[in-house]
Amino acid sequence: MIRKYVYGTPFDTEAVVGAYDLGADQPPWLTVSASGRRFSCPLEEEDQVYGLGEQVRGINKRGWRYVSWCSDDPYHLETARSLYAAHNFLIVTGPTRTFGLFVEHPGRVTFDIGDTKRDLLTIETEGEGVALYLVEGGGPWEIARSFRKLIGRSYIPPRWAFGYGQSRWSYFSADEVRQVAAGYREAGIPLDMIYLDIDYMEGYKDFTVNTEAFPDLAALSAELKEEGIRLVPIIDAGVKVEEGYPVYEEGVSKGYFCQNEDGTPFTAAVWPGWVHFPDVLNPEARAWFGDWYRVLLDQGIEGFWNDMNEPAIFYSRARMEELAGEKEKRMASGKTEPEALASMREEMGTLSNRLEDYRSFWHNTPAGPMRHDAVHNLYGGSMTRAAGEAFARYAPDKRILLFSRSSYIGSHRYGGIWTGDNYSWWSHLLLNLQQMPGLNMCGFLYTGADLGGFGADTTEDLLLRWMSLGLFLPLMRNHSTLGVRRQELYRYPDSRAAFRLMVGLRYRLLPYLYSEFMKAALRDDLYARPLAFVYPEDDMARQVEDQLFIGESIMIAPVYTQNAKGRYVYLPERMKLVRFRTLERWDEEILEKGHHYISVALDEVVFFLREGHLAPLSAGGACVEQVTAEDLTLLSFGDGAAYEFYWDDGVSTDYTDPAHITWLRAGSPKEAFHEHPGN
Ligand code: MIG
């Protein structure tokens, strides 16, 4: 049951596509301020809070103040209030009440979840105009599903996007890309994607290619595709200001860029130098920007990642001019240039992502002109939407890979997200796990973190442990920044066999992982499930913050501390431990409900099977296209174990043909494979 309450005149973010009732009487436990911007309700001692998508801290979000304000935060510290996304949905669940709240509002929103006062939840929007959706009925898992139904089906990528991807800022030339492909091939480690960071472009100009470094992108793309590898280029939000560059010229002549108060395009500095931001909140401009992706699609590219779309601003031209004036002023009053600059250190330290800049430019939205800060959180997701809508026009029957850095609820229908610039820190390995369920609740299923960590030098053991988590997550990409230790798996000869096992196991598990993803997407369900949702009656399970269910059959409990030889794992019921030592050899052991210390060597993968469930294993492959659903091996626990298996062609958008579903039963995989529901 979903009821909508309206305060003021909300901006339609188009997040909601499903059915709801207009609420008449507000629930008595919800206090709303006269301004219609502040909502609070008491939290009971036992209440837990879930959701909020891309944020720091635990799966249970209680005890911190989070702010939805899409931000290019390069640290992701425990004390961060905001990351790149605005995911304004949470679930409160406790002994007397379980409900979900979605705050539809495109500007800044603060969620004080028992931070200021341990027993109080307060949600406050900065601007006016709020639509509040109250979701009730059932436990937290049902609430999550009802909400997902309200916001519409999550983005589904092509199956090859469930392969393993290697990224780096940057692979600077076609030859470097070929070396990466060869490195993986020679090491015998599967690979499906190589990512191109900003240096494939000419002068960081979107939809251009640096033809000195990449003389023939179409040919390179075709050559790699022969080996089952796709190139996935980055697209940045800012369009370079440069005479003769058609994206710039068209955008200016059509008025498709975000504008200053006086109607001139807003100018900021990002990687290319001065840029304008396409006004993706204007449907016409959005269609125009989306169409530009065809330049790369026409060269055989089938996937993209959208970056810098909070939008990230190094500094604005207006601010630079202001500072230049200030410097002149100080020099006129007797300071030398270095003295003037030294005295302005404070001003110059706060140049990037300034609120004043976000308050200075405008969008042309269907609801009329909107100042950026009032709709800030919609920008990145609308860039994703621009691409997603264009793909649907260009190739309606084909799936194209797309994920973004910034996002809002609603943009989950157009693309996935990655979680941005994490660090090669053990704490960020755990954060990766803890972010997954909240992201899924907010609609983001195709998602993952930079495996191995983006910033700082990784270590071999961190990379190993991170890969053994990453192999279970939909977006499995290893990415790292300029200048840090290389993270390509083939560069670690001592761990070659272990990486072959970890990535290889991803491909062996693909039938299960893909099937679970597709069922979650098509049924508005979670792919990554907190134990609290699966065992809501189990007090211990409700507290588990470092284990997850991946679909219905598999529970994971990764090691996330350095030098640990294993870890404690809580089993809410009897489970079967599965320990992979090589791709072909694994041990199984049945463990009783309760706490167990489980040893996990650096070169092993350990997971748990739920009783009465099974997971199909393929024979593996060097790329996803080689993985077939023939001759599946069934990992199962319990004689009656059965599994609803989803498998389609992995490329087209015909998702709902009933022939995609077969039932697998422990003991007779072959027969089971041909047994359709209802037979
Ligand atoms: O200011 O394109 O999060 O993945 O490698 C940094 C360079 C810009 C930020 C992205 C990161 C990417 C990097 N980008």
Automatic annotation (TrEMBL):
Any Gene Ontology biological process: carbohydrate metabolic process
Keywords: Glycosidase, Hydrolase
Keyword Transcription tagged: no
Short name of one Pfam family: Glyco_hydro_31_3rd
Hydrolase in keyword set: yes
Domain Glycosyl hydrolase family 31 C-terminal as annotated: residue spans: 527-613
InterPro entries per UniProt: Gal_mutarotase_sf_dom, GH, Glyco_hydro_31_AS, Glyco_hydro_31_C, Glyco_hydro_31_N_dom, Glyco_hydro_31_TIM
Glycoside hydrolase family 31 N-terminal domain boundaries: 42-112
PROSITE patterns assigned: GLYCOSYL_HYDROL_F31_1
Domain spans labelled Glycoside hydrolase family 31 TIM barrel: 155-515
GO molecular function per UniProt: carbohydrate binding; hydrolase activity, hydrolyzing O-glycosyl compounds
Stated family: Belongs to the glycosyl hydrolase 31 family.
Name this polypeptide is given: Alpha-glucosidase
Annotated organism of origin: Candidatus Flavonifractor merdipullorum
